User: What shape does this take?
Amino acid sequence: MLSRERFINYGIILLLGSALIYFVLIGDESYVEDYNVKIEALEAKVDSLHGINDHLVYKIDTLNQQIVKLDKEIDKQDKKIVTLKYKVNEKVNSVDSFSDDELTRFFTERYRHYEDSIKKADSSSSN
Assistant: This one.
């Protein structure tokens, strides 16, 4: 009786071992191929996105450099504006204290490049 139980136990162990070996080693691997195809597609997409990302990073760096240059130019222009405002304010303050004769001379000197609208013509038929 003991040998028959032992024989049944060995049979069950052998049957379970065979089933385990079949499923582990010989089992259907079609899903592995599907997963490998999906993995390759995802890797290609990731590589494409890395390329796009690198291009965008380069573009961002270029734009940041341009921003820095423009900020420096704006600072220069702001300083020029402040200086010009100061100079104009000084001139306005000095003009406030001018007498009539000094005002006439100031405006004559300031706007002398605007000559009279009637001037000698350069043509040979001028009078």
Notes: The chain has one domain: 2-110.
